[in-house]
Design brief:
201 residues; Glutaredoxin; single chain; 30% helix; alpha+beta; globular; 9 strands; disordered N terminus; two-stranded antiparallel ribbon
């Protein structure tokens, strides 16, 4: 009985470690590091390499999470609306493929092709960028200005279930404030989504 209990405790501990938080990460006002990650087209992408950017909509997301899927069309619409204005979406998949095989790089390429994703969809294979940013969910948004200063963190809007029932467009409001040289009114909200699938220790 004791052996069975010990094994169960050990198994639960391993499970919890794979879904443990990344750490404190960035707060609004911090300057984010740049990065260089592989895009679904096989090319390496950095923030500094995006020409004409006035800011960046960094979204930690993935293929498999129902919340990420629910927001996919909204993220595409955000990119199509704001990329021409200098605020492109840069999506990053931080999930470990061994924990969630549907989030492998090959599956990312398939998803990008099927959905005709117009933005960079990058693979954070080591999970170092997600940990540095402090991302915990998919989707989890970090809005950066042109100096990579974090201006907003959290959810895209206030309704993960229905785009037509959204009342507060947190991310769009924050982008519009930046574009108009104003302070972001709502600087942080709670990201709603699946927990990032961390590598097992």
């Amino acid at each position: 009985m004791k052996k069975a209990f010990s094994f169960l405790t050990f198994s639960l501990a391993l499970f919890a470690m794979s879904f443990s938080p990344a750490g404190p990460g960035y707060k609004v006002g911090d300057t984010a590091i740049d990065f260089k990650l592989k895009n679904v087209d096989g090319k390496m992408v950095s923030l500094a390499g995006i020409e004409g950017a006035k800011g960046y909509i960094v979204v930690f997301t993935c293929n498999a999470c129902p919340y990420a899927k629910a927001y996919e069309d909204r993220i595409i619409a955000l990119h199509n609306k704001y990329a021409p204005l200098g605020y492109p979406v840069v999506a990053i998949n931080p999930n470990d493929k061994d924990v969630q095989p549907a989030d492998s790089f090959d599956k990312m390429k398939e998803r990008a092709k099927d959905k005709k994703i117009p933005y960079a969809y990058l693979y954070d294979e080591t999970q170092e960028i997600a940990k540095t940013y402090g991302a915990t969910r998919t989707p989890h948004v970090y809005l950066l200005d042109n100096n990579r200063v974090v201006r907003y963190i959290g959810a895209i809007d206030d309704n993960s279930e229905s785009a037509s029932d959204v009342k507060e467009k947190y991310l769009e409001n924050a982008i519009d404030a930046l574009r108009n040289g104003k302070d972001v009114a709502t600087k942080e909200t709670k990201a709603v989504g699946c927990g990032i699938k961390w590598k097992k220790a």
